[in-house]
Write a structure and sequence with these properties.
By secondary structure, the chain is mainly α. The protein is 64% helix and 12% strand. Strands 1-3-2 form a three-stranded antiparallel beta sheet. The longest helix has 38 residues. The chain is elongated and about 80 Å long.
Length: 119
């Protein structure tokens, strides 16, 4: 049976799929920033940065607040926990399979070593 995950998880993975959005999150991991300061290092338009910010907001990964005439952004890391939990399922899967592959390779190496004549 296929297990479906909440749409919020889909939005988080979609938001993380873009390198610009990941870079925005990395900057916000250091603390609150204005949108203007956040947009400065990117070689894209302010409008494009705003669109990326909107995607991150829709995924619940950041919060916008207005202070005076400026908007400040802060990272909300909680939605990342669901993504990490989902990925951990596959980490266990691959760890088990890689352990099996390693065991088979070691067994084959022992068998080859036993077949080689000693000089």
């Amino acid at each position: 049976m296929v297990k479906y995950f909440p749409k919020s998880l889909n939005r988080v993975f979609f938001a993380l799929s873009d390198p610009t959005r990941r870079a925005i999150l990395a900057q916000l991991a250091d603390g609150h920033m204005t949108i203007t300061a956040l947009a400065a290092p990117f070689s894209i338009s302010f409008v494009a940065v705003s669109k990326h910010i909107r995607v991150l907001e829709q995924a619940g990964l950041l919060k916008r607040s207005k202070q005076g005439r400026e908007y400040h952004l802060r990272l909300i890391a909680e939605p990342l926990h669901d993504a990490v939990n989902w990925l951990e399922q596959y980490e266990r899967f691959w760890t088990e399979h890689l352990d099996q592959i390693k065991a088979r390779a070691e067994q084959k190496a022992r068998e080859r070593a036993q077949r080689k004549p000693n000089p």
